[in-house]
Amino acid sequence: MKNLYRRRLTNCISIVITVFLIIFTSQCFAESSEKESKISSYQYLKKLNQVYDFVQQNYVDEVDPKILYEGALKGMMEALGDPYTVYLDDSSMRDLTDTTTGSFGGVGLSISKSTESPAYIEVASPIEDGPGMKAGIQTGDKITAVNGTPTDEMTLDEAVNLLRGEIGTSVTISILRGANMKFDVTLVRALIEVPTVKYGMIEGTSTGYARLIQFTPDTPLRLQDAINEFEKKNYTGLIIDLRDNPGGLITSAVDVVDKFVDAGPVVSTKSRVLFESRQYNASKTKTTVRKDIPVVILINRGSASASEIVSGALKDYHIAYLVGERTYGKGSVQQVVSLFEDDGIKFTMAKYYTPSDTNIDKIGIPPDLEIKNLETFTPEQEEIYMKLINSKVIDALVEKNPKMSESTIAGEAKKLAKEYQLDERLLRRLIRVQVQRSQPSPLYDLDYDLQLQEALKIIADKNFFNLVQNAKTLKELQEEAEKESELVVSK
Predict the structure, then answer these.
(1) Residue 120 CB partners (closer than 8 Å, separation 6+)
(2) Which 3 state secondary structure label does DSSP give 191?
């Protein structure tokens, strides 16, 4: 067994080194430099083998060779300092497969490890119709504990394993929202099916609304279904909602953009490996959205990766106006490589660039109009909010009347506002969320959603196309930011 894992470690490290050697030799470096690099790589590989043998033979206790094998690969990936380059044990590979195939059991939250201290688990985005979304969990919420176990020293894999479990069982998570709002939420695990597109006309308007939840192979097809439906209803405006969309397939993002753009680059990837550097172009034959349709894209900090490819391309081409908040900023492309059993590695192979040749990694895409949906509380309001949440008064209201109408919700919110001095819009939202916990999520919440309200106003603006045409490309915005930075330094 020891020799087996030593061979596997050697082979796996050889694979990684070979990948980087291919990357290295694919460039036009001097021949002497190539030889020195190869020699150095093999010398390090030899040293790793020597250390592995030394530990096996001399450590005070007998060591499971699998622990050394996994530890070496974890350390190698972590040494690159890239949060998207990681070793995937058999459990992580299985979780990745579950997610990409479209269904799995859990609480319906996409999570990441916070980079702040303490390093809690952070909600990247709630999954549509999942227990987390129905309970009102929001992007940016910190999970400080799972069933009472603190998360600040947990790995992401450990947190995932605690959150997932048998369907129908419950798990209690402790939430930190903002700086001081802390409360517990009990979620019942369910079969999580990852949808791709939801759509419909905004009631009382001629504007079509399509929420792209994740980029899968079906996303372009489902979006085209939406466009066809909007055409039948003579739509005069289109809102594409990419909020809390964590991304997905780059090819799906390209196909979505192609519905709007006649010709030219949609996105390009740049890598040290020549065959990973490519440009994806639009084709006029695939364009299906008319040029006279005003398009607004909704974005927030949960919009990442493929979402940023779409919003970045349509901004650079002056086709869509962006409303909401700055996006996440994931401008890199990963590949998953399977190893010898059920494990593997996920690593960054390239960075992607928008049509204006801009990379947004760790920067994100700013909206053309910034509108925040989340409430900003004073310290006094935070105390009132926490008092309301902990009182469970809303739970009791909904338990008595689980099928509240909108008029009843508004009436109850008005009553609550007299005791809890909070905005009635927020109170309506809290009651509505509780009512909908046992129902499919609604397509939109126009009463609460300030960003959607603003999008409708912009689409109705007669000067919409001038507004979009005058919006700056990502390249222009980054050049401005660089000049401002230089001025600050010179002062």
Answers:
(1) 114, 142, 143, 144, 151, 152, 176
(2) strand
pTM: 0.78
Q: What is the largest CA-CA distance in the chain?
A: 79
Whether 294 and 238 have beta carbons less than 8 Å apart is answered as yes
What does DSSP assign to residue 107? Answer: -
Contact 471, 465 (CB under 8 A): no
For the question of residue 491 being annotated catalytic, the response is no
The one catalytic residue among 92, 110, 271, 305 = 305
pLDDT along the chain (491 residues), means of 10: 62 55 44 56 86 91 90 91 87 63 73 82 85 88 94 85 88 89 92 85 97 93 97 98 93 97 97 91 96 97 95 98 96 87 88 97 96 84 90 92 93 95 93 81 92 97 97 95 77 62
Task: Name the DSSP class of 215.
Answer: B
312, β-bridge pairs: none
Of 265, 260, 262, 261, the C-alpha closest to 224 is 260
Bridging pattern class, strands 86-88 and 344-353: antiparallel
391 in active site: no
List 134, 198, 315, 330, catalytic entry = 330
Rounded to whole angstroms, how far apart are CA atoms 427 and 398?
13
| pLDDT given at position 396 | 92
Tell me which of 95, 241, 258, 316 is the catalytic residue. 316
305 is catalytic: yes
Q: Which residues contact 16 (CB under 8 A, 6 or more apart)?
A: 76, 345
